[in-house]
User: What shape does this take?
Amino acid sequence: MSLISIDHISLGYGANTVLRNVSLSIEPGEIVTIVGPNGSGKTTLLRALIGAVVPASGSIRRKPDLRIGYVPQKLHIDPTLPITVERFLQLPGGHSKADCAHALIGAGVPDLSQRQMSGLSGGQFQRVLLARALIDTPDLLLLDEATQGLDQPGSAAFYRQIEQVRQRTGCAVLMISHELHVVMSASDRVVCLNGHVCCEGTPEIVSAAPEYRALFGSGTGGALALYRHEHDHAHDENCDHDHDHTHTNNDQKRTEAAE
Assistant: This one.
């Protein structure tokens, strides 16, 4: 049974239609990434999945008792507020110290429990948000550009942590990202969204699709090869890094221009 089934939903704000006739399903244990230009409806889709907005038409069906963990794009905490990571994780549900410790281990930051939230680096802060999303052992983890503001190595490390979470817990992951060079290799399935579903499938299928290339160009293949080399060490270290790095830079530029 699918965790979530989206059936031909349309959604807008006032006279502005953001999503048109979108259908999508999320299966247990898979990692799905949604890519698309700024204004394409990616965040609106996630808001619909968690029930924050209601589609004007179509339907969203959730598996009974579905547990969802959510990592937002950003979260502002008053820097003058004295609150430790552990206390932050305990709000509002009153989770135990053991629950907090287990979640921090799952997020890859086991030693942060007594640190002040205001003293965390950007990468540490996002890992704590990940820990909070994991604390209730979700069936589905939603990530809304959770690596925004992190550098490329930090983003790659974060996505590798997500893969480890999936392997360890079996949860499905649905994430939004503009970092094509990373997500195209971190995903089982990619959905290209631009108000409607332009194309979807494996990263290789989507990166070759005309609809995808019209939005992002054709450089992702080289970027995909570079990331997989770094992540899997599948090729000899003397392979042509410069060629792939050029593709990565071009891909980032196209993505930034699209946004």
Q: What stands out?
A: Confidence is low (pLDDT under 50) at residues 220-259. The beta strands are 4-13, 16-26, 31-35, 57-62, 68-71, 140-144, 172-176, 189-193, 197-201.
